[in-house]
Specification:
The complex is a heterodimer of chains A (about 250) and B (about 425). Chain A is an alpha/beta fold and about 250 residues long. Chain A contains 7 helices and 14 strands. In chain B, helix 4 packs across helix 10. Chain B has 2 domains: about 250 residues, UDP-N-acetylmuramoyl-L-alanine:D-glutamate ligase (3-Layer(aba) Sandwich); about 130 residues, Mur ligase, C-terminal domain (Protein-Tyrosine Phosphatase, Chain A, Alpha-Beta Complex), CATH 3.90.190. Chain B is built from 15 helices and 13 strands. Classes of the chains: A alpha/beta (about 250), B alpha/beta (about 425).
Chain lengths: ~250, ~425
């Protein structure tokens, strides 16, 4: 078989990376390499040209703190933001966690009531109800609503903002344990074209290998325009780690 | 009233010690603070000659406190400090109760209090209205237990605000290689001293993935580093506004009985406080540090079944990366046991292990893994291409310690890298007794 290769665009690794979000990059890289797929990780910094972003086959951006988000927000108001919008609209697969997920929506209202404009790609908005409301923190388990994802997704959430989807049908998953998008409507995350937004850290991909493989499959199919079936890997440690957290959540 | 609380607390302490209840380091203080929320302040006020040192930071509080205590005691000063880890107000209050005489007096020259990073403001409130000489030490600030603390920036902001409420006679000691902490101190009008380490000890040019402050705290431009020691500590310059390191004291001739760059920072912090706040000459500091013994679990060397065990508390990315680097630098033959728990003192979120560079673990050591979240750690290490099956993951702690020990030859070393609650448990198994 022809040697395949993918480029993963890691947006703002020095700004958008709390809660071990780089674990997602490590997992995507290794799971592709273990199947003989070449991987290049393109790190996109504030100083990086948007042309580099345009060469990426799979996009990833992690969560961040408020100050860091402001810097990224400024950078995305320019050319890089346009390229990002274009790529997501043209169905480049992507995974956007927490702060990045909020960014891609219409707006984010901060704890002190300031409204920050988002990129307006995902049909959703986020509001932080203020410091007097508790952050939504804890282990979480959700039931995905996506073709190809059959196992529950587990992770850890830690967010002050509450996200509301324009269309609940776009949700990534239904919450079984934990808070999800807003702690009220039982929805978690969003699916938009080939991109996924979610509040789940953990990081999300190591303990949800099925989700990691779905992203890789979508990336290969989008790039090469043909169907792909990834060979299964030995996921026994993954399975045990999942069992422990599912037990903790009282779901086994 | 406060005398009564001291006496009551002493009674509680006596009961807890006699019956080995194990929580004596906090609950006498808890009772006192519940009854009088200004208990610490009131007692300190009636002891105006007692000098106070507060030590805050993500990593190194206990080690630095212990070093400073040793230096000061060898300089013939009478010192007490709160117990390691009992660093909330109730722990501070407990240490006051324990060290007061029955007249409620603290017959000491100096009190050293290590303070939880999220509680520095509270601690400052208790000490800022007293007439005592006050020194504040800010060691470092890294991401740690974000499920409890929220954001690292939030802590930095709290520290910044707390420093604005100090009496003018307060002296600040901080890490001049940390862009955020040195900036917080720069903005203050108080007397400031900065510690650092020699530039030749800085082996890298790039801040680590575990960094939190690599953008200018003043103008948000990305900082340029010429050298880094670890995480975001190093020699930096802001291309935007020119912000750079202050001059730092690096004490190149002090002895180091502990290993790792993080301990050079701790040592230099302790030396700087001893020298500037208490006029201890450098020669005396040298003598005191030459035979320094670590606090429990912090590079503590134990003997177990004829093997040497070195316990390196590793509870957040910056600290863990330093432990790995220290093991490599030591270059001793032996194995490694990683213990990951997710209890309240460890942080319930274990995401942080993905910010640790396990890829740097020595390739010729066997790695064993245990703890409540052993399989999460196993996954992390699997993806670092260090282990390829679950053979080395042993969920039960006692079994894991036995297995890792028996796989280590006599005369070799077993390094144990535990989170906080795991360290206490492992230590209990190895020494046969609990300490907290």
């Amino acid at each position: 078989m022809k040697k395949r290769s993918i480029t993963i665009g890691w947006l703002y690794p020095d700004l958008m990376n709390t809660y071990g979000d780089r674990g997602n990059i490590i997992v995507l890289t290794k799971r592709a390499e273990w199947r003989g797929i070449n991987v290049k990780v393109e790190q996109i910094f504030v100083s990086t040209s948007e042309k580099r972003l345009a060469t990426c086959d799979l996009l990833f951006m992690g969560g961040a703190q408020d100050t860091q988000q402001e810097i990224v927000n400024r950078d995305l108001q320019d050319k890089k933001g346009k390229v990002l919008i274009d790529k997501i609209e043209k169905e480049t697969p992507g995974l956007f966690i927490c702060g990045a997920y909020q960014f891609l929506g219409k707006y984010y209202k901060t704890a002190d009531g300031k409204e920050l404009k988002g990129l307006g790609i995902f049909p959703l908005f986020t509001e932080n109800p203020g410091e007097s409301h508790a952050r939504l923190i804890g282990n979480v388990m959700v039931e995905p609503k996506v073709e190809g994802l059959t196992s529950p997704i587990v992770g850890f959430e830690n967010h002050g903002g509450r996200t509301y989807l324009d269309y609940k049908n776009n949700r990534l998953a239904d919450v079984t344990k934990g808070f999800g998008n807003n702690g009220k409507d039982g929805s978690e995350g969003i699916v938009y074209k080939n991109s996924f937004g979610t509040y789940l850290h953990g990081p999300i991909l190591p303990k949800n290998p099925q989700f990691a493989d779905l992203l890789l499959t979508k990336t290969l199919e989008h790039k090469y325009g043909e169907k792909f079936h990834l060979e299964p890997l030995d996921d026994s440690i993954e399975t045990k780690a999942r069992e422990i957290i599912l037990n903790k959540l009282g779901s086994l | 009233m406060n005398l009564l609380l001291v006496l009551l607390g002493k009674l509680a302490l006596f009961v807890s010690q006699t019956f080995n209840l194990g929580s004596g380091s906090t609950w006498p203080g808890h009772i006192a603070m519940e009854t009088n929320s200004n208990f610490v302040r009131d007692v300190l006020k009636s002891n105006p000659n007692l000098k106070i040192v507060l030590i805050a930071g993500t990593n190194g509080k206990t080690t630095t406190s212990l070093m400073l205590q040793k230096i000061l005691e060898e300089a013939k000063l009478k010192v007490f400090r709160n117990e390691a880890g009992a660093n909330l107000l109730n722990g501070i209050a407990s240490s006051i109760i324990k060290n007061s005489n029955i007249l409620g007096n603290l017959v000491y020259d100096i009190a050293i209090f290590e303070v939880d990073e999220n509680n520095l403001g509270e601690a400052i409130k208790q000490v800022s209205n007293v007439r005592s000489q006050l020194s504040i030490v800010l060691l470092n600030l890294f991401r740690d237990q974000l499920d409890r603390y929220g954001e690292v920036n939030t802590i930095a902001k709290k520290w910044d605000e707390a420093l604005r409420k100090l009496p003018l006679s307060t002296v600040i000691f901080t890490n001049g290689d940390d862009p955020k902490l040195s900036d917080i101190a720069n903005d203050s009008t108080l007397v400031r001293y900065y510690f650092g380490i020699e530039e030749k000890e800085m082996k890298s040019e790039k801040p680590g993935v575990d960094s939190d402050f690599t953008y200018c705290p003043d103008c948000q431009t990305k900082l340029k580093y010429s050298k880094t020691s670890y995480s975001h500590l190093g020699k930096f310059m802001c291309p935007g506004c020119g912000l750079t390191n202050p001059e730092t004291e690096t004490f190149p001739n002090l002895p180091h009985s502990l290993f790792g760059k993080y301990n050079i920072y701790n040592t230099n912090a302790a030396a700087l406080v001893a020298n500037k706040a208490f006029d201890v000459p450098i020669e005396k500091i040298k003598d005191a540090l030459s035979d320094f013994k670590p606090a429990f679990g912090r590079q503590e060397v134990l003997k177990y079944k004829n093997r040497e065990i070195i316990m390196l508390l590793s509870k957040n990315p910056a600290g863990f990366n330093q432990s790995i680097e220290a093991i490599k630098d030591l270059n001793k033959k032996g194995n490694i046991l990683l213990i990951l728990n997710d209890r309240i003192p460890d942080g319930r979120d274990v995401s942080w292990i993905w910010d640790v560079d396990f890829e740097n673990l020595p390739k010729d050591s066997k790695i064993f893994i245990t703890g409540d979240r052993a399989y999460d750690m196993g996954l992390r290490v699997k993806y670092a291409s260090i282990i390829h099956n679950s053979e080395f993951i042993i969920q039960n702690l006692e079994e894991a310690i036995e297995e890792a020990t028996s796989e280590t030859s006599t005369g070799e070393t077993l390094f144990i890298l535990p989170t906080y609650s795991a360290m206490l448990e492992a230590r209990k198994i190895i020494t046969g007794k609990a300490i907290l």
